[in-house]
Amino acid sequence: MTRALFVVLAEKGHVHPFVGPAQELARRGHTVAFYAPCDLREPLARAGFAPERVFVGATGAPPPDDNRGASFAALVADPERLRGWIGAMLVDTVPAEVERLTQVVRELRPDVIVADPMAYAAPIVAARAEIPWAGFSTSLNPVVPDTWDSALIATTSALPRAALFAEYGVPAPQFRVSDCLSPWLNVAWTTAALIGREVPDVLLAGASLPLDARGDEVEALALDDRPLVLMALGSQIWHQPRMFEVVTAASRGQPWQLVLAMGGLARTFAAPPDVRAVAYAPQLALLARARAFVSHGGANSVMEALAHGVPLLVSPICNDQPHNARFVAEAGAGVACDLARAEVDEVRRHLAALCGEGEHRRSARRIAASYRAAGGARAAARAVLERCRA
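^ that's the sequence the OP posted. Answer follows.
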């Protein structure tokens, strides 16, 4: 049996895509462990993983409040501060994590490491320990065309990543946007139906959904029979009052019901009586019946919506989100719209089109069918066992 160590980052969108493949390996009788920079034992226990096999990284503390809400919204709106934050996350934290992860690898002696390819400590430790590793991307970075340009691409290209690896005697790997590419296996949670082509050396596995509980389940919302529009802006970047306000105004008097998952804003947002404003919504359960999804374009949210055949209105804010919005729009599975500036009438027209039976829904359903055919979490787990052998 194989011992697999999953190395993840702290935020939900960087953890959830690993749950399904890890559950599949465990079902097959393999030993599964997790490593994260903060303590994820409680949520991963709810997803079925033994707490004693969830290792805590160098800091051990949850992400600071500055990494979410109003302070984080202000940070990402400042290009210089955002560049500094990206550099700190990708490069500056690596030495401490290399030291701690090396200890865990010596204790656990895994046969394979399955890592978020933005967690650069993982490929460094894997190379030094001569352990194969697989990259399960939590973005669409591995499939971004070389011809595209963005602020994130410019920022990551300027980081001293080759020098970082050289400090540990590890040859510089190939990078694509934020991701470090593996010589064994790279998985992107998508298919050619969304991105328009196959990509050499990248397994397009469809959608990574949990096989059992994911660990973030909350109480179901009581909704009526009207079509549902869900709006959520992720676990970090939810403090966008104007974006929620314009969607709420655009939904007034319309035939759909609106659910807003808005983090701490839910405590103070003046939602109309027929709008449900909650801090955290059961996203997978709601997407199973939603007609449209309004999103910031986080890769995990886009993947989950398209896996359910739900068209999107994507309003990208930072980082890889403009890439994801472009993929969605070019595939016809939704629209890109800047909710920080859009007028109410424009947003209403977009939502009405998304809730209908037009091209956006047909494209989203076509992508959903391709995701099911690609195999998802089970296909990725199988690829780890087939390709990542020392």
